[in-house]
Amino acid sequence: MKKVVLLRIDDRLLHGQVVVSWIHFLKVNEVIITDDEYARDEFMCQLIEASAPENIAVQVLTVYDTVSYLMGEDEGSRILILCKNIETVKNLVEKVEIDTINLGGLGAAQGRKRFHNSIHLSDEEINILKDIARKNVNVEVKMLPKDKAVVINGN
Q1: Angle at 90 between CA 31 and CA 38, to 5 degrees
Q2: Is pLDDT at 16 greater than 80 in this prediction?
Q3: CA–CA separation, 125 vs 103, rounded Å?
Q4: Which domains occur in the chain, in start order?
């Protein structure tokens, strides 16, 4: 199985903080955007792939294709997975081993309330994250690598 160093939930996906801070800090060589809708949109795939640094491989995949890809042989990969919603993460965690989930940006929306800084969550989303944490997955809120993590535990 390929090595996932971090799964980040951020509705902005591949943007400045990720490109400038996280990719360098984590020393990743691959970024996977896991999003069923975007994976089927050729324009969005091209746009996302064009925004990546030259030395970083970027793929936009469905949940199913992400799982299949991760099950492949590890050839020294260090993968950052980016998802824009918690439901996608829930589906991934049920199928592949993820050590750490990072919440980096979830904007305000109907049914959500401010959880921490720019993280807005619904009660259902909080419960999903707590369920994931109970499976021995580190779930944290951390905008930048240097920031102190706010841990979401299963309690």
Answers
A1: 45
A2: no
A3: 12
A4: 4-152 (3.40.35.10)
